[in-house]
Every structure is written in C-alpha cells, then in structure tokens.
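User: Hey, quick favor. My workstation is busy. Could you predict this chain's structure for me?
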Amino acid sequence: MKILNTKFIAAIGVAFCFVVIGLGAWTRLADAGLGCPDWPGCYGFITYPTTVEEIAIAEQLYPDSPVEIDKIIPEVVHRYFAASLGLLAIFLVFIAFRENKFKKTSSLLLLAIICQGIFGYLTVSLKLHPLIVTTHLFGAMIVASIFLIIYLRSLKYNANYGALVANRNLIFIGFGLIAFQIFLGAWTSTNYAARACLDLPLCQGQLLPNTNFSEGFNLFQTIGPNYLYGQLSNEARVAIHITHRVGAIVVFLYSLFLAFKLWSPQTKNIVIVFLSILAVQIFLGVNNILSSLPLWNAVAHNIVGVMLFLTFIVMIYLSKGNLNEPK
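Assistant: No problem, here it is.
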C-alpha cells in the first residue's frame, strides 16, 4: 500500500493546519502582523533584512515602518509555514487526481488555499483591517475542515451513530453557535478588546459597564494609517468583550444540552472528547482574563477553538448516513 495517498496527505494537512493557525495567532497576538510592511517579500527581501546594510536599505524603502526583528520573525515564520501548507494542498490535488477520487473536494481545497493567499496579502496591504484578519482566520479553519473531510472520506466506518443521525439538526445549530462564537473571539482579538475586561464576573468593576455596540460591531470601519493596537474607544471594546463572554455562556449551556441528546453507547467516546475540548477551552478563556492574556494561553485558546470547530465537522460528517462515497 502506498504511503503517499490521499488519506495520509490529508491527515498531515490537518495537523499542519494547527501549526499554521497557531503561528498566525502568535503573530497577531505578538502585535507582529505588520512585522513585514509588504507581501510576499519582507522589506523588499525574499527572506528579511538581517545585516546592518540590509536594515538600512529596508528602512529607506519603508521609512514609516522601522525594522523590528522580534516582530519580523513571527511574521516570516508564519508565511513560510503557510506557503508550505499551500504546496501540500497542491500535492494532495495531484494525488487525488492520480487516484481518481476526491477530485472535487481537493480542487475546492486548492481554491480555498488560493483565497487564503489573497487574504494574506490583504491583511498586510489593508493594514490589519479587523474584518480581513477575521476572515483570514475563518479561511484557515475552512482549509483545515476540507483536509479533515478528505481524511474522513478515506476511512471506512462500521459503527452505528444513530444518535448523531437522529440529532443532525441540533448538531448544525451547535455548529452555527460555535462558528459565531469563534467570530466573536476573532473580533475581540483583532480589535484589541481582550484586555477590555480583566476581572470576573464583573467588567472593570461593574456589572453593566458603559458600552458602544454600534462602534464595536461596525464591520466596515475605516482605519488609518494602520490598525496596529486598534482604534476603537474603550466603550466599543467593552461591548465586544462582553458579547464574547455572553456567547461563551450560550455555547456552554447548549453544548451540555447537545451532549445529553447525543449520548449513547455508540457515541459516548465522541461526546466525551467534545466535552473535554470544551472544558479546556473554558479554562483557557477564563485564564486569559485572570492572567491578563499571557501569550501562550491566548494562542492555545485559538487552537482549541479550532479543535471545537473541527469536532463539529466530524459529528456532522458522521451524522449524514452514507459515509463511504468518495467525491
């Protein structure tokens, strides 16, 4: 049996997506999203400026963006890994066409990767516009989901997942809630609202602090000269943060209800994994606040959020009935 088949490459792709998403979160949370002011190069270099002479050239080319190596490195590393993921997707398409299966799905994956490249460019060229950065994150999760679906389709399932089939609509509702909560989390991060409330259960010592929802959720806000460190008022950031908190409570309560509905001898392992990931995510979210957003915790919060998203992808897939038809 050939190792380099769609199943193996798709599994590698899923794992690699976690690395790329984690590096993207690290880049964003370390305020390194504009570590390179241009794309796909960095200060006009294929890699990045390292010598004194190269740094002088770089700062002459981009006088408004002084070279900061500690911010360049996360950005460049993220770009290299993202480019490698794109090459992996191209290779998967080649393997899929050679095996004459999953051709449509692998082609969709390649299209998603191309779109991610475009949004990577827009992230830099539009100076970290929150809507672009948030969309870029969702694009990464879509890429991970397609890799995962290809992997799942390459497996053979014999177990009875009747509880998943019977509650398929409830799973879709949960998936929608998780997706919206991830949007709120990304919106909180890209608008630098994570530190707007650093106490629990209050916010800035108040049960009902001043908020500005219209400003906080203006998706098409204008920015300038860039969006590094954000431009929203404190009231707008508080509105975003509180909405994310409320969303977390809703997701938690619905997840408990969903787990109760899905529990059966055949699905208990899936439910236990789902609740375990949820518990870790709640811990990380609370620790983000109580520990004033440590970088490792914030990155882990992003990664575990993607794990929850992909858990729903698995449950949706297993609930659809016919599991063994390549497409």
